[in-house]
Amino acid sequence: MMKLCILVGTTVGSYAFYAVGDALGFSFLWSFVLSGVGSVVGVWAGWKLARRLEE
Question: Looking at the whole model, is its pTM more than 0.85?
């Protein structure tokens, strides 16, 4: 369950942060960097969600 939540969190976080960067008119490079930040945030959020579901 933990790995699934982290996978979904990473995917959603990465895409969401990339879309925000693209919507704000950032270049591809900065949108890509934001995508990496979104991946890290997604891993953290997925991990927290999985921990709550296991309780």
Answer: yes
